[in-house]
Design a protein that fits this description.
mainly beta, globular, five-stranded mixed beta sheet, 155 residues
């Protein structure tokens, strides 16, 4: 089983949230932008780097709003690196886009299975598979309490 620690960001603009779209075989799902924390890298730096790589976007990292942990010994939908199982811990922060004249919205670094980035409204999100597995209402609420912890084990 592989262990991974990542930083992810919640970015909402015009009542839509930014997600990364992935496809493996016949399954499509959405995850918050972000990724693996490199050795010696702090969480906020990781998140800024991942937004640059995945969405060509500079962000200001706000408060930690969720620590999400999941353990999947036998994942059904898997990235190739998860084939022997995954124990993932994600620090999820609120983020805001830093608006610059040169801001563009073109994905330039693709992870395995990554199709690009997509803005989803709450009603669209309710119809697709997305991660973290928290309620759509919580994701879009403006009054998140810092320090929420979610843990789920899939057997």
């Amino acid at each position: 089983m592989r262990q991974n620690f990542s930083a992810r960001g919640l970015l909402i603009e015009r009542a839509k949230m930014l997600f990364v779209e992935y496809q493996f075989e016949d399954t499509t799902f959405y995850a918050l932008p972000g990724g693996t924390v490199e050795v010696g890298e702090d969480l906020r730096s990781c998140l800024r780097r991942e937004f640059e790589e995945e969405a060509s976007m500079q962000v200001e990292v706000g408060e930690l709003v969720l620590l999400n942990e999941f353990i999947k010994p036998n994942p059904k939908v898997i990235a190739p690196q998860w084939k022997d199982g995954i124990h993932q811990i994600e620090a999820i922060f609120e983020v805001k886009r830093v608006v610059l004249p040169s801001s563009k919205m073109a994905t330039n670094v693709f992870d395995p299975g990554m199709q690009g980035v997509r803005w989803l409204a709450a009603d669209e999100l309710a119809k697709v598979t997305y991660y973290p597995e928290v309620s759509v209402d919580w994701l879009f609420s403006g009054d998140k309490v810092a320090g929420k912890y979610l843990s789920k084990r899939y057997d």
